[in-house]
Amino acid sequence: IRYPFCSFLRPRWFCDHYYCNRQLQTYMYLLLLLDELVLNELLKMLTSLIIATIAFFRLILD
Predict the structure, then answer these.
(1) C-beta separation of 6 from 18 below 8 A
(2) What is the DSSP string of 7-41?
(3) What value does the mean pLDDT take over residues 37-61?
């Protein structure tokens, strides 16, 4: 069985079922890891931004 994703990454002759599965799993894992890291960073940025905004408004209002 050959996946479309396989020939995209590697030449067809190089790509058997097992290898393709391994590749896909690795890529999916990396994508998930990246997603998690990016989300964590975004959350940190968002919280710090909110805190900064609150502090700013407090300064103005006081």
Answers:
(1) no
(2) HHHS-GGG--HHHHHHHHHHHHHHHHHHHHHHHHH
(3) 90
- Evaluate whether 7 touches 15 at the Cβ level (below 8 Å): yes
Whether the Cβ atoms of residue 2 and residue 9 lie closer than 8 Å to each other: no
What are the angstrom distances between the C-alpha of 32 and each of 8, 16, 18, 28, 58? Answer: 20, 24, 21, 6, 39
Q: Using one digit for the tens of pLDDT, what is the confidence trace for 7-34? A: 555 555 555 555 566 666 777 777 777 7
Distance separating alpha carbons of residues 35 and 39, to the nearest angstrom: 6
Model pTM score: 0.44
